Fold:
Amino acid sequence: MSDKKTTPLTSPSIEEHHCTVDLRLEKLEMVPFFRDLNDEDLRTVNEKFTAKHYSEGETIYRQGERATMLRVVVAGNIKLVSHTMDGTDVLLDMLKPGEFFGSPTAKSGDVYVETAQTQTNACILSIRLADFRKIMDTYPTVSVSVLDITTDKLNDSRERIRYLSTLPVKKRIAHILVMLANKFGEKDKRGLLIQLPLSRKDLADMAGTSSETASRIMSQFQQDDLITSGRQWVAINDKPELLRISAE
Amino acid sequence: MSDKKTTPLTSPSIEEHHCTVDLRLEKLEMVPFFRDLNDEDLRTVNEKFTAKHYSEGETIYRQGERATMLRVVVAGNIKLVSHTMDGTDVLLDMLKPGEFFGSPTAKSGDVYVETAQTQTNACILSIRLADFRKIMDTYPTVSVSVLDITTDKLNDSRERIRYLSTLPVKKRIAHILVMLANKFGEKDKRGLLIQLPLSRKDLADMAGTSSETASRIMSQFQQDDLITSGRQWVAINDKPELLRISAE
DNA sequence: CGGTATTTTGATTTAGCTCAACAGACGTGG
DNA sequence: CCACGTCTGTTGAGCTAAATCAAAATACCG
Structure:
């Protein structure tokens, strides 16, 4: 436990030249809503996509911009943020490879309702919305699959409304830590390491609180040996207990 | 302004015997996701539905019950509520005729994540999830349409997260009143009357606050002549000003 | 007209925000 | 490899919005 301070995150070293067709094909299969397509259809679909590399902290699109593309994460992590007029941010979602973002069904004239930003270096596929619409009309399994995912996101989102409306900050943060551990956790000597640059402000923007309050609560969890944490990283030591706190 | 106290709501007098096939056919056409079907297909689809009448305050299904049906509102209003262990309720959504509820994509074993309850007398159509899945696989326009609606709900839900995370109660309630006016408002001598039994507790459960606080804020709005309100009803006098308050 | 549910209003308490200062970690360039 | 500047996180003190507790007033229902 001497290295409590050094960042233990394995930074995903996606080089620009790795963001290629080979990787694209391999990963498109991975995307849930293309899994049911056969090889030939998959090849047809693949041609509609273009790949692009982004480095850490880059903005992919901004809230308010005309929505034209649907995007898929091939490598790296993306966060979806909503900015408010007074400067406060709300962190709506964090994405990992295989997930899509940008409204799948925006009509012409619609704009993005959130800002998408990389948390790490990332490789992203894009498809024009019109092309994607055509694919959904051609392959019913695709649209049903996108619907499945969107329904899950809606349920998550409503659960979060429940937490924001009824629970104190401590329980909200405990809950967020458990969710992040489930989605991004990797077994590690430190326990379940959340493989993601994760600041106190990020946590605060997810929990709807200030970074100071988030910090205080994280300190408390650390004192109670529930987590180990340093600058921009968090590892979970006692998930069951955090779960208990969030639900009690 | 003499009758400020008497309820001005026109209660939707849906008699049990009106909830019939005739009404069903007429209304199914109204449902957005069946609008693109031709008459014959519509007839086929219609046969899979059963109609049922519910009276005011009845519970249609409870959170935690096995999810087996997708439902469509033909007449009346439904509210979707999430109950928490400590007794507080969160009002997730209020539905009017034409809207569907119950997860469209629940797998066998899934349960409802919220409770559905009538706010007025209501006529509801039900279809078994397996049957609806078959319809979506057969008619791509249906699944794409359901996806459109679900995406809109997801965006609404995220906007609400933004409000809960960043704005004080007064702005949240102003925002909710504007939204309700847009969805349920009817021109009336009193202004825009929200055609819906709407208590202070309902408002509180939507805004994530206590009914006392909701009451105080409503009193203030009434003093400022922005609304007129009585027991279980609200009319909007000055929507632009409420909008301004919610956004300032 | 009496009974019940809803709403209003008041008084008190408190969780969490804000402002402020400091400390620890990381990157960078010499 | 060290010194410096910057960014992130910690901690403290006071303040405020909103919760809670309590009680009265009003609307509706039979």
